[in-house]
Specification:
- The protein has strands spanning 3-7, 10-13, 18-25, 33-39, 46-51, 58-60, 68-73, 78-83, 92-99, 112-113, 117-122.
- The chain has 123 residues and is mainly β.
- Strands 2, 4, 5, 6, 9, 10 and 11 form a 7-stranded mixed sheet that branches. A 4-stranded antiparallel sheet has the order 1-3-8-7, with no helix packed on it.
- A hairpin with a 6-residue loop joins strand 4 (33-39) and strand 5 (46-51).
- It is globular.
- The N and C termini lie far apart (40 Å).
Length: 123
Amino acid sequence: QVQLVESGGGLVQAGGSLRLSCAASGRTFSTYAMGWFRQAPGKEREFVSAMTWSGSNTYYADSVKGRFTISRDNAKNTVYLQMNSLKPEDTALYYCAGRRAILTMSPHDYDYWGQGTQVTVSS
């Protein structure tokens, strides 16, 4: 079992930066593929970024490529999402998720979810 708690969200102006953190409990965190997803009001949950358990492979949605960076520190049981050059369309509730299997980009494949952290980007 893995429990996930996100933090780091907030209100930022367009062009600004935020770093989201996702703290995981559970000794097997290092074996999980980890992903970040987001959901804006009235929209479906969408893939943002994901990383393999080793950190050797990372994936990004086209909409965030070049602006967001995912990373993890298995010693601290934490995964991060550095978000730069934020745009109003990045406004959403951001979730981290874990999967004890190969990495995928579908939210339906992830087993464990945090409660989400709100990111609001003003224009």
